[in-house]
Design a protein that fits this description.
The protein is mostly beta strands. The chain folds into two domains: 25-150, Sandwich (Immunoglobulin-like), CATH 2.60.40; 164-300, no CATH class. 2% of the residues lie in helices and 40% in strands. The strands form six sheets. It has a six-stranded mixed sheet with strand order 1-2-12-3-9-8. Strands 16-15-18-19-21 form a five-stranded antiparallel sheet, with no helix packed on it. Strand 10 (127-131) and strand 11 (134-138) form a beta hairpin.
């Protein structure tokens, strides 16, 4: 499927939690309730399995025991997901159990360098669980507190000053005042919005331009390495007139350039020459919009 996008620069995923399930669940499950979650920018993708699904005996259920789990880092690459265990020995981990008569009882946990953790002595039933700055309410006994991370595990940041990308791209659609150029390399874990705003050459795109001659500053971004399978996509977003009059305008990926030969050298200038190809507008976007309740807005490509 060719890339098609609209004028939303960030995707927000609502991560929630189901209580009392008899099957493994994830915070991305649509059935969940927001009361159980306080999120942070690097929210773990908790996968919670009930004690029944883990085969615990009735005796163990009544006596309680340890809540255990792992911290798996899941790197999402173009070739699939690569899993790595995470050293969590310094991360705060704990559980709290509420008793109406006595209040909350705390159960401190321990994380280990091999990516596992344990919280001893937690009674069976619902409890409050803390991992770093994230809190959930659950009755599960085995948890996966790992993360999903875009890109290769060894993807490094470009730290050297003067790391630049010289672009000479031809064949844009005539440039409009609300157009933009974005760069994506999913295998390297990099996405740069409004790439044209990073220009350090002083050559600004003007209305009607069909060529892009700029030098972009990529300092602080992930390093793209074509020899490691990184594919780079550069695309132009152009304003379109939507069918639905509710939206004043829509942006779609109108032209694109793709290369697997780009490798960015830290602290140096990398030159890219190529032809932008027009992207057929043959993909349908269906969007339900609730202006007063943005959390209910749904889109489908």
């Amino acid at each position: 499927m060719r890339p098609t996008t609209h004028d939303v620069s960030k995707t927000f995923v609502l991560l929630l939690l189901v209580l009392g399930c008899n099957e493994p669940i994830s915070l991305s499950d649509d059935r969940v309730s927001p009361r159980s979650l306080r999120s942070n920018p690097w929210l773990p993708s908790f996968s919670l399995a009930s004690e029944q699904s883990r085969g615990e005996t009735d005796a163990n259920k009544s006596n309680g025991g340890a809540v255990t789990g792992t911290a798996v880092l899941r790197f999402v690459t173009d070739a699939g997901i690569i899993e790595r265990l995470n050293n969590i020995s310094s991360i705060p981990i704990a559980a709290w159990v509420y008793d109406p008569a006595t209040g909350f009882q705390s159960f401190p946990g321990m994380g280990f360098p091999n990516g596992t953790f344990t919280v001893p002595g937690v009674p069976q039933g619902e409890f409050y669980f803390r991992y770093s700055s994230t809190y959930v309410v659950t009755s599960a006994r085995v948890l996966d507190v790992g993360f999903y991370i875009a890109g290769r595990p060894e993807a490094a940041f470009l730290t050297g000053p003067g790391t630049r990308l010289e672009l000479r791209l031809f064949g844009l659609l005539p440039w409009g005042p609300s157009d933009a150029v974005d760069l994506v390399s999913s295998n390297a874990g990099i996405i740069v919005y409004d790439l044209q705003r990073r220009d350090v050459s002083g050559r600004r795109l003007q209305r009607g331009d069909t060529d892009l001659f700029q030098v972009e500053d990529l300092s602080g971004q992930h390093r793209i390495d074509g020899t490691l399978g990184d594919q780079t996509v550069i695309y132009q977003l152009s304003r379109r007139t939507p069918v639905d009059p509710v939206f004043p305008f829509l942006k779609t990926a109108s032209t694109g350039f793709r290369s697997s030969a780009i490798s960015i050298a830290d602290g140096q200038t990398t030159s890219v020459f190529g032809e932008m190809t027009e992207i057929p507008q043959d993909q349908l976007l269906s969007l339900r919009h609730f202006p007063d309740r943005p959390q209910l807005t749904r889109s489908r490509y």
